[in-house]
Amino acid sequence: MNTRRLATTGVALVAALALGLTGCAAERDTDAPGGNGGTTGAAPASSASSDARAELTAAAQKLSQQSVKMQLKSSVVNGSGAMDPATKTGDMTMKMGAEGTFRILMLGNDAYLKITGMEGMPKKWMHMDATKLGKSGQLNLMPDGDPGGAKQMTQSVVDVEKTGPGSYSGILDYTRTKAEDKSIQALGDKAKAVPFTARVDDQGRLVEFAIDTQVLHESLGTMITTYSDFGAPVTVQKPPASDTQEAPQELIESLGS
């Protein structure tokens, strides 16, 4: 199996997806200083910006309270799926153009990955222990019961303002939450000022998060994640044993935190 290619080219695209889907946020104390020269949890410039931050944080936290469907659109990666934090189940498909299609299933602490369209990949599902992927691992769809890491994503926010009813805009600094991540380190100062916009519905739930990732690389453009169908049932079937194999350690290490 071509695990080296998966651990480099393919996983690089999964990392790009993570920028749009989770904001590359790992759980941390937002008042702690960011590593690698990242900004600290500075006080808001005004009560207006403080209110906007509180509203956006509350909207993201609502995503951990019930099941949700997600859809991501970008110039390089497109994905869709559904997650239920209560049962810790999820099903996400990511289409990555020439790099193939990644489908991820979450069933409690079990994660299953199947890749089609990439030469050298196995035909079977690859099973992994989700607990070994880490809270910010690229296949951990629901860190601490948080669909897509949206709640943690707000910890990367260094500036935000309310631009209209249910609308927000601001700046993300990825070094605040993943200072030790080599892919983030490679971006340098670009990772410290990434523009975003967000929308919240009339029930105070986050329904759209758009990140201008072209500041990281011109080919990326804007990554838009939308959330919908709150509370709808999520059913995930475990792949049959005959169609499952254990994932190689190299893959687990590359996808972990």
Automatic annotation (TrEMBL):
Keyword Cytoplasm recorded: no
InterPro entries tied to this protein: LolA/LolB/LppX
Amino acid composition bias (Low complexity), ranges on this chain: 41-51
Signal peptide, first to last residue: 1-25
Keyword annotations of the record: Signal
PROSITE patterns xrefs: PROKAR_LIPOPROTEIN
Positions in coiled-coil regions: none
Chain segments carrying region Disordered: 30-52, 237-257
Record-given protein name: Lipoprotein LprG
Organism: Micromonospora peucetia
